[in-house]
Every structure is written in C-alpha cells, then in structure tokens.
Amino acid sequence: MKAIVVRPPNVGAEVKDVDLHEPVLPGRVRIRTLYTGICGTDRGIVGGKITFARPPDNSGELILGHEGLGVVEEVGEGVTHLKKGDLVVPVVRRGCGVCLNCRIGRQDFCETGNFVEAGIRGLNGFMREEFVDSASYLVKVPRAIADIAVLTEPLSNVVKAVGQVIHIQKRMLWTCGDSSYECRNAFVVGTGPIGTFFSLMFATYGFNVYMLNRRDPSPAESVIAETIDATFYNTSKGYAELPKADVVVDTSGYPSAFIPLLGKMNKNSILVLFGTSSNDSAKVDAELVTSIVENNIAVVGSVNASKEDFAEAVNYLTMWKERYGGLLNKMITSVISPEQATEALMKKPSGEIKTVIKWS
Ligand SMILES: [Zn+2]
C-alpha cells in the first residue's frame, strides 16, 4: 500500500509502497483511510526540527500522520462497539501501561513519558491507505460530519485545554452574576486551525473573543470572526485598544507574542500556553513575576488529549455544523493527493488554514 514515510531526523518525506502484514487480531480493526490532515508537527518532523520524532522500534522509517479519518473495513473477534462501514478517528497517544493516568485512559497526562504517538514517536501514523488499530483507541464519528471529521484530532487538543481552564478557574467564583461567562474576555493569540478552534470554543462558552494576529485577517478569517461574533485584532498597531483579558491563550509559541499581553490580564485570570517554537529570546522579568503573583494569575501548559476529549470534539463539530453551516468547511483550504503532499509538507501553501490529503 501507498504511504508517506519519513526518516527522522533527516529532512524530507517520500511516498512509497510499504507492506506491514498487519493481521486483524482479536480486539483490533482494519481501517481504510479517507483523509489525513497536515499540521505544524508534521512539517516540523519533515523539516528535521522535532527532536523527539522517532520510528517504531526495529524500524528505520516512520509513517507520518496523526490527524486521521477512516472507515472500518473489518473487525476482529471481541470488537462490539464498531462494525464494517463505521467512520472512525484514531487517538494519537498510546499509554505507557505503567503509570496510573495511562491505566485509566488519561495517557495525555502520562507520568513516565514512555508513551508512543502515532506518526510522531515510536508508532506508525495514518498517512497510508489502510491501517490496523486497537478498537479501544478508535472514536466513532457520525456520517453527518464526514466532510469535517478530519478536524477531530486538532480540536480534541483544544477541548482538553479549554476543559483545563474551566476546571482550574473553579479555584474561585469566576462566572458572571447571571452564571454565564458573558462578562469575560478571551484573547487567542494566533489564527491557524488551533487558534480558530480556541476562538470557536470560547465563543460557544459565551466569552467575548478576541482573535489576535500581527496582520489583518484573510478573507476566511474575517468570515470566521464575523460568524462567531469575535473581534479580529491586528497587534501590529499596538495593544492600547484592547480591553483587559480574563483568559489569554497562546497558540503561536512565541513569548514575544504573548508577554506584552500579560499587562492586560485581569485579576484571577489564566494564561494557557499551547504553542511551541524554537527561536524566540523574550524573557520573563521580576516585574512580570510580581504581577502574576499579585493578581492570582494561573499559568498552565496543555498538550495532547484523551479519548473522551476526541468524543467531545466530535460533539462540538456536530453542533457547530448545525449552528454555523459550512463555516468549518472553510477551514479546509485545500484537499490534495498523497503525491502532492510531499511538497505541501515541506512548504505551507499560502492562505492555508488546514490542508488535508485524500486517500480514498
Ligand atoms: Zn504513563
């Protein structure tokens, strides 16, 4: 079968024929891949910049891809909640089997670090025509969202992070006088797919959402901001016109993009760090530390997602499709073949929100 393979830390990706001889053992499922999404992590691996990327043990190459959507072709003995023809999205991280969090399905909070991640570290990914996976790592998707369900994985990470915000902010009374979040402002730094999902989530919770970037919005970004009643704010004109924030989410990974916003944070607010980067030297100084302390500001990093977060992401996609019509389809800015993917993996196409590869 056709697959997109990489040899980390070498630069580049290749479309080639691979034969993995994967039998459908008890508890496992054969899936025909429909779509896989391309994200910054994939480009980081192909560009040789993700130091933790590694092939499965005893293999020199890794099949790329962690944002997948497929259709069940065959189920192994003992699989009861899936049948041939069902649409499924696979979970990315697989637990260490040792720590308590992994043993209760919360491998996103693995304590040992000995987990594997499909298409990233130690486990082949989904950029191939078919794969066999454990039923316990597959999330069923309704037909009604077949056209956008490839977005489930990136959204699952946002579902987790926003859940963390709501959970942590229970440290006090944080809702408004009418029990809503309508008096709260959420700043989202970055307007890629992850930033867009954070904006959608906070808008759904009832926050006043500010989508921040260092430039004016693209036509697609304007439509998204308008549809969800968010304000798109160009930070290149300074921060003076922004109100105070109750939540700041950074999806850019650049400290220089979110540190100037810390002076805009309300008392008891929360900063969520989601993005990562490798070349920014902005520093946190003593004055900033004092401000974080004196204002009870919480700082949380968030990565990955549990199977529950994937299922919740499927629910949000279903609800948003009903509420916003074709808005989510506008996030999929191009659909390409596996052969075209090697170039798209090296260089982000201009105007991209999400590029997806069509497999069948
Ligand atoms: Zn673990």
From TrEMBL:
Biological processes, Gene Ontology terms: non-phosphorylated glucose catabolic process; protein tetramerization
Family indicated by similarity: Belongs to the zinc-containing alcohol dehydrogenase family. Glucose 1-dehydrogenase subfamily.
Top EC category: oxidoreductase
Keyword flag Plastid: no
Domain Alcohol dehydrogenase-like N-terminal: 26-142
Binding residues annotated for substrate, in chain numbering: T41, E117, E153, N157, N304
InterPro entries named in the record: ADH-like_N (IPR013154), Glc_1-DH_arc (IPR026583), Glu_dehyd_C (IPR031640), GroES-like_sf (IPR011032), NAD(P)-bd_dom_sf (IPR036291), Zn_alcohol_dh (IPR050129)
GO molecular function terms noted in the UniProt entry: D-glucose binding; glucose 1-dehydrogenase (NAD+) activity; glucose 1-dehydrogenase (NADP+) activity; NAD+ binding; NADP+ binding; zinc ion binding
Glucose dehydrogenase C-terminal domain mapped to chain residues: 146-358
Named cofactor requirement(s): Zn(2+)
Swiss-Prot/TrEMBL keywords: Carbohydrate metabolism, Metal-binding, NAD, NADP, Nucleotide-binding, Oxidoreductase, Zinc
Catalysed conversion reaction: D-glucose + NADP(+) = D-glucono-1,5-lactone + NADPH + H(+); D-glucose + NAD(+) = D-glucono-1,5-lactone + NADH + H(+)
Pfam families, alphabetized: ADH_N, Glu_dehyd_C
EC number, UniProt record: 1.1.1.47
Organism from which the protein derives: Candidatus Aramenus sulfurataquae
Name the record gives this protein: Glucose 1-dehydrogenase
Function: Catalyzes the NAD(P)(+)-dependent oxidation of D-glucose to D-gluconate via gluconolactone. Can utilize both NAD(+) and NADP(+) as electron acceptor. Is involved in the degradation of glucose through a non-phosphorylative variant of the Entner-Doudoroff pathway.
Chain sites annotated for binding NADP(+): T191, G192, P193, I194, N213, R214, R215, F274, G275, T276, S302, V303, N304, K348
